[in-house]
Amino acid sequence: MTPSFRVRVIGGRLRHRPLRFPRVQPPIRPTPGAVRETLFNWLLPQIVGTSCLDLFAGSGALGFEAWSRGARSVHFVEREAQVAAYLERQRATFGMREATVSQADAFEFLRRPAAHFDVVFLDPPFQETRRDQLLETLISGDWLNPGAQIFLEWGRQVGGCPFRIPKGWDFWRTSRSGQVVFGLIRESGLGLGQPDRLSFGD
């Protein structure tokens, strides 16, 4: 299947605006529109006024969607120079003064002095084997504001969730779309209602 090199923002002030990301190898794998729609239905209205981290930004679809729907700021992290330059141009085109782009490997970025975020989009390449290290660093490294939420995404072919969820955190929402499985985790005991009945499929 030939990958698409353009997606559109689904909702909010940037609704229908295109994101034309560069052709690189390995190719960028944008989070599908159906997944983004479900995710931001979960996050509304909490996304408004939040500080977001798009850690494996790629097309930037998650971060741009968050800002479009009312996030206060977004920090994009992208390793590839060509893709980081695209994100910077797109940020400027949309007039996102509250957004920043870091050209950095995700692990390198997380060794920097910590900032604080309300929502983190953690969507590493499906072949990434260090997911647990990423998640543990985020949670233990003072990167999160109280009540923060982390979005996780992975390929259905791996079976159950490939992330080891740290003690004191739980999935509150999970779903599937095609070959993508995804969920939203939060700290336990936040008084935000009961989690979904979790099912990651085969």
Question: What's the helix and strand layout?
Answer:
Elements: E1 6-8, E2 18-20, H1 33-43, E3 51-54, H2 61-68, E4 73-78, H3 81-93, E5 99-103, H4 106-109, E6 117-122, H5 131-140, E7 144-155, E8 169-177, E9 180-187
Parallel strand pairs: 3-4, 3-6, 4-5, 6-7
Antiparallel strand pairs: 1-2, 7-9, 8-9
Structure in a nutshell:
With 202 residues, this protein is an alpha/beta fold. It has helices spanning 33-43, 61-68, 81-93, 106-109, 131-140; strands at 6-8, 18-20, 51-54, 73-78, 99-103, 117-122, 144-155, 169-177, 180-187.
Structural class: alpha/beta
Radius of gyration (CA) equals 16 Å
CATH H-level superfamily title = Vaccinia Virus protein VP39
Helical percentage:
10-25%
- Biggest sheet, spatial arrangement of strands: 5-4-3-6-7-9-8
Quote the average pLDDT. 90
Number of strands: 9
List the helices and strands in order. EEHEHEHEHEHEEE
CATH topology (level 3) name: Rossmann fold
Structure description:
The strands form 2 sheets. A 7-stranded mixed beta sheet has the order 5-4-3-6-7-9-8, sandwiched between helices. It has a two-stranded antiparallel sheet with strand order 1-2. By secondary structure, it is of the alpha/beta class. It has a single domain (6-187), classed as Vaccinia Virus protein VP39 (Rossmann fold), CATH 3.40.50. 23% of the residues lie in helices and 28% in strands. The mean pLDDT is 90. 37% of the residues are buried.
